[in-house]
Amino acid sequence: MITSKRSILLNAQANGYAVPAFNIHNLETLKAVLETAADLRSPVIIAATPSTVRYIGEHYLIGMMEATQKQFDIPVCFHLDHHERLENIKELIDLGIHSVMIDASHYEFEENIKIVSEIVEYAEKSGVAVEAELGRLSGIEDDMVVDEKDKMYTDPYQAKEFVVRTGVDSLAVAIGTAHGLYKGKPNVDINRLAAIQKEVEVPLVLHGGSGLSDDLVQETIRLGICKVNIATELKIAFAQGLRAYLKENPEVNDPRYYFKDAIANMKRVVSDKIKMCGSMNRG
Ligand SMILES: [Zn+2]
């Protein structure tokens, strides 16, 4: 069942849980997420970065989305994660994608508003939900690399103005989380999140969810986070499973076998994150 991201997130906001957004890369990782979410009756967001869309191919991605609609009856929505090229976003909206993140967070405030507003206006016609980011997370996600010195926290008052002027459906906040792996202990500014929640009505989004403790993420959920992005931890689980399997079974050359442990490993992480987000039995 495909549900709009807007309604998935508003339901989470109204009931005090978050929906996990998992970055997928191929059919195996998509199925690992969907089968686990279906077992746990959790709504789920399937996220694809620009390089994932290039890797899978946009028509295959839309095909996967349509197949999901037929095979699973939990609320699922396909989402573009950190997309920047306006023409690509519009093309994928025309092809039927459910939800997009337009990331113009590296531009200054007015320019960010202008770029995001253009996508909101375009997306509205198709009922597509739009997420944008204010502030800037450090770390690495696919092609996107932001140095620690270039990170910028979200200002609560600017966030309010940003949401009102752009009309976005959800807002990604920069409160000290980072993409990729944390080098030291993550330093998350919980007070800033509380201040943002006071000012902003739309659901808030936490990027850089890999490597944060369950307690910390749950605290952010109590302060308005309705979507938690998980990418790196899934990649690690999948790669570790694959590596170990091939090491133990060097004679196996059939992908239907050698992906087995990789998928099982990834499913364990997906299941843990769904429980952490409190989205179990909400779908
Ligand atoms: Zn992100």
UniProtKB/TrEMBL annotation:
Pfam families in the record: F_bP_aldolase
NCBIfam families reported for this sequence: cbbA, PRK09195.1, PRK12737.1
Annotated organism of origin: Fictibacillus barbaricus
Keywords from the UniProt entry: Lyase
Alphabetical list of SUPFAM superfamilies matching this protein: Aldolase
Required cofactor(s): Zn(2+)
UniProt-recorded name of the protein: Tagatose-bisphosphate aldolase subunit GatY
EC assignment: 4.1.2.40
Gene Ontology terms for molecular function: tagatose-bisphosphate aldolase activity
Keyword flag Transmembrane helix: no
